């Protein structure tokens, strides 16, 4: 199972961290997507829209297509606070 540093920080869970969303997203340009799996948050990829805003592709549920949500929404769900989510 894969977990991000942010998931560990936001939840306090004792999990082994495999990557940092902030560091991983720094290497993603606008209109690009890279596979990163965070089982804690439930996403399978990080991507940026044409304006460079970070999004996450959630795991598909019950055969439905993957939902793409903003990183800000993910942060809000976990009660995380940040002045600005990672962009390009």
Radius of gyration over C-alpha positions, nearest whole angstrom: 12 Å
H/E element order: HHEEEEH
* Category from helices, strands and their pairing: alpha+beta
End-to-end gap: 27 Å
Q: Give the number of domains.
A: 1
Shape: globular
- Percent helix, as a range, is 10-25%
Query: What's the story with the biggest beta sheet?
Result: 4 strands, antiparallel
Poorly predicted ranges:
none
Count of distinct strands? 4
* Lateral arrangement of strands in the main beta sheet: 1-2-3-4
Compute the number of helices.
3
Portion in strands: 15-25%
Average residue-wise pLDDT: 90
Describe this structure in words.
This protein is α+β, with helices and mostly antiparallel strands. It has one domain. It is 23% helix and 23% strand. It contains 3 helices and 4 strands. It has a 4-stranded antiparallel beta sheet with strand order 1-2-3-4. The longest helix has 7 residues, at 5-11. It starts with a helix and ends in an 11-residue tail after the last helix.
